[in-house]
Design a protein that fits this description.
Rossmann fold, globular, 8 strands, alpha/beta, 216 residues
Length: 216
Amino acid sequence: MKSLIEPNKIHCCDCMDGLREMPDNYIDLAIVDPPYGIGAPSMNMGAERNTTTFYDRTKKWDTTPPDADYFDEMLRVSSRSIVWGGNYFALPASRGFVVWDKKIGDNDFAMCEYAWLSWPTSPKIFAMCGTHLTQGKRIHPTQKPVELYKYLLSKYAKEGDLILDTHMGSGSSYIACLDMGFDYIGYEIDQDYFTAIEQRVYDFTRQTTFDFDVEP
């Protein structure tokens, strides 16, 4: 059986299979974006303004948020954790958080998103217009910019850290880690999204050689 916790691998599988293999505090920093349970695939999510969007709106992955077992395991294996959509989950109180200001003005779309941090630190705001997603294909309804993950890594990770993403989605976290030289473990349960991530990573790395492997 292949290991699901070897650094610098990504896996098309249930993240719980990998988390259960990991010893306590195996991960230095988890940056995760689990399903919020709000039916994101069926929402507009800016698709009408983005002619390169091609994600499948019929997928039902966002009907239910992760249960307590997921958070217990993810927090057990991670020395520190950043959880996007922390306002949707029953997480401990923390004065550390990050807000992504999408700079889209006052309208009916989400103007910002909230990330919960597992340790006490000063709150931060990262401002970047959401129209960045018109540059290249949008492969996932909740796709976040690579620059957002690079900001989080620059603020909260140090050289040599092992980064975890349990719900890769579009693979933005992986590309940020590749670009910045961080060790990484990623999981994506949906084969279509995983295949799209592989293509996106290939497009990013085709002119550069990395020592990172992609393993289904």
